[in-house]
Amino acid sequence: MDKVFTVGVFGLASNEQNTLGSIFKLAASRSRQYRLVTAAERDKAEIILVDADDPNAVNEWRSFSVHNTTAPVVKVSKAVPAETKETYLRRPLTLKRVLEILDRVTIESHKYVPELVVGGDGVLDEETNAALRDAAQSAQQASRTGVKALVVDDSLPVRKSMEIHLGLLGMDIDFAETGEEALELVKTTVYDIIFLDVMLPGVDGYKVCKTIKSDKMSKNTPVVMLTGKGSRFDKLKGTMAGASVYLTKPVEPEKLAEVIKQFKLPETKSA
């Protein structure tokens, strides 16, 4: 699913704003697209660019940010500090620099990773690979929420996809490749949410789910079944086993986010 992110600007010469407009037009066929908004619309912008080399622009942005603090900020400058936690875009503005920085902001701040389809098997192009690398790095650096998740799946690509998804939400994650491993982990750890494949080596996901739901320690933990078995009969078996939600792979990022949000875990309460 494509998305257009709105970009508000403080400062920047007219020629640089024209450059941004041209870059955004060239990127109009990508999954991440961008559109400049007027000064009057900056309070609704999803990303803010500030000319860090212009004191007047910085002062204007600071006054604006007193009442508008939700949009992530990218500072535009000729020189980027060697050590900084802020996001910088170095002058001169080039297509590669602009899109790399803005794409990273959409992943880190907006958790927008349409490339991250759980259980997908498509061939990945260079842009998709770059987005996934950024997403993996952001997931490692995301602030932890204290939410504990267990992912049970014998597929390494699925485990890696879930590691990025849940990592971006600040969750601490344990992994199990078999039903037996999962049940051992559940004996010693109280999880906030469990993602469970159906087709597992040894004990299958239905039996694992039943055991989880019959245990006093884990019976209230939501279990989301992630499986390639999508028939009505399979879904009924999942429901009878106690699954909270039954998702059929491949699972689009928006669907997974929607399901996680419904359980009102700490990361999603404020969303």
Structural notes for this entry:
41% of the residues lie in helices and 18% in strands. The protein has 271 residues and is of the alpha/beta class. It has a five-stranded parallel sheet. Helix 5 (156-168) links the parallel strand 6 (148-152) and strand 7 (172-176). Helix 4 crosses helix 5 (156-168), helix 6 packs parallel to helix 7 and helix 7 runs parallel beside helix 8.
Helix count from the secondary structure assignment: 10
What general outline do the C-alpha atoms trace?
elongated
Low-confidence stretches: none
User: Strands of the largest sheet, in order across it?
Assistant: 2-1-3-4-5
Order of helices and strands: EHEEHEEHHEHEHEHEHEHH
The rounded Rg comes to 22 Å
Helix content: 40-55%
Secondary-structure content class = alpha/beta
Euclidean distance between termini CA atoms: 20 Å
Number of DSSP strand runs = 10
Record the SSE blueprint.
Elements: E1 3-10, H1 14-26, E2 32-36, E3 47-51, H2 55-65, E4 73-77, E5 87-90, H3 95-108, H4 126-141, E6 148-152, H5 156-168, E7 172-176, H6 179-188, E8 193-196, H7 205-214, E9 223-227, H8 232-241, E10 245-248, H9 253-262, H10 266-269
Parallel strand pairs: 1-2, 1-3, 3-4, 4-5, 6-7, 6-8, 8-9, 9-10
